[in-house]
Amino acid sequence: MIPDSFHDPKSPFYITPRIWGLYSFLKARANTWFTAKQIQEALPFDYPWYGQDKNFTGIIGKQINSDVRLLRLAAGADVVDKLIVSNRGLGYKCGNQKEFDDFFESQRNEAVGKLSMIYRMQKHANLHGQSKIVFQEEPNGRKQYTVFVD
């Protein structure tokens, strides 16, 4: 679902001036990777740092990541024209075709892994209440699946 309310301040998908500032910063420096720390240092008024997040993985890192995700959603709705890619070791940037292909492949692999785990869990959940014949484990030769906590 792609919302069309990026310009409505009442919408949860509203692109704030801070997010536009981040987009402008990355777009103006399209060939450079920026870590969360570098973005915070370049945009200190948009992402204030109070010394509590030494690795930039807490509040600031999550805020930047959230803003980038909203910009990606906006790119899908043609609100912004550049795609922002990310790489765990390098940071964020407006990507070229190869960088987007690499980013897409990593995101696809992550999604497939999550779906695979969910389907395995669903398969196991469907065993609840069923029994199977086992030898040498149970005294009556049957094992009852109790998947859920009562």
CATH architecture tag of the largest domain? Orthogonal Bundle
CATH superfamily of the largest domain: Winged helix-like DNA-binding domain superfamily/Winged helix DNA-binding domain
Indicate the CATH class of the largest domain.
Mainly Alpha
What is the H/E order?
HHHEEHEE
Determine the structural class based on helices, strands and strand pairing. mainly alpha
Strand segment tally: 4
Indicate the mean pLDDT.
83
Shape: elongated
- Figure out the total of helices: 4
Domain unit count = 2
Describe this structure in words.
- The chain is mainly alpha-helical and 150 residues long.
- The chain has 2 domains: 1-95, Arc Repressor Mutant, subunit A; 96-150.
- The protein has helices spanning 17-28, 36-42, 59-76, 97-125, and strands at 84-87, 91-94, 131-133, 142-144.
- Strand 1 (84-87) and strand 2 (91-94) form a beta hairpin.
- The radius of gyration is 23 Å and the shape is elongated.
- The protein starts with 16 loop residues before the first helix and ends in a 6-residue tail after the last strand.
List keywords for this structure.
single chain; 150 residues; mainly alpha; Arc Repressor Mutant, subunit A; 2 domains; two-stranded antiparallel sheet; two-stranded antiparallel ribbon; 4 helices; 4 strands; elongated
Blueprint of the fold:
Elements: H1 17-28, H2 36-42, H3 59-76, E1 84-87, E2 91-94, H4 97-125, E3 131-133, E4 142-144
Antiparallel strand pairs: 1-2, 3-4
